[in-house]
Amino acid sequence: MEVINAIKDRRSINFFDQEKTIPDEKIKELIALASLAPSGMNLQPWEVVVVNDPAKKEILKRCAFNQPKVSEASATLIIIANPGAIEQNIDRVLKSWVELGYMKESDVENTKSMPFAQHKDKDSIERKLFAVKNTSLFAMNLMIAAKGMGFESHPMDGFSEEKVKANFNIPEDRIVPMLIALGYAKPGLKLLPRAWRRNLEEYVKFNTF
Hints:
The chain has helices at 3-9, 24-34, 54-63, 68-72, 85-100, 108-112, 114-119, 125-148, 161-167, 200-203; strands spanning 46-51, 75-81, 152-156, 175-183. It has a single domain (3-85, 122-186), classed as NADH Oxidase (3-Layer(aba) Sandwich). The protein has ten helices and four strands. 45% of the residues lie in helices and 13% in strands. Helix 2 packs across helix 8 (125-148). The longest helix has 24 residues, at 125-148.
């Protein structure tokens, strides 16, 4: 599917086919595509827990105010933002840049300090915003890629982050911006027309607010 069509045709699906499942290898392929999303200094501060075991999906459903799509979807993905990704990934990023010819070895030390100067300490609001912003790029890429692969999805922010972390062993320093239900649309599902979108004139400005 062409990317423009995938963007136009992607909808947030509430009702999934419980008889069809997405194989683990296809989910891995999807996540690999999503990981091509851009991120600040290529630091990739995202992590994913794929929940496709029926019992685990029921637990996650209870964390998400018992929304049926959590358990009816083939899998529901817990999308995680990691504020500590700078510390974890910066050396590998810079090593790759040197090897690929993006920068010289002599520039590594000065460059290494840049994300710390911009995004502050691990517990700062700047660092948390960095992690969530970039993880959201990954999440949107995942939903577009899912549509391109013939799957449907639904991003969700109706859940208890505290309960999700506790039940799925997610470290306290992580942030869970959303869940994404993933699967195939329920047979015979009829979608209503796409809901209202604001006119561009209402929110688009050129050159100044």
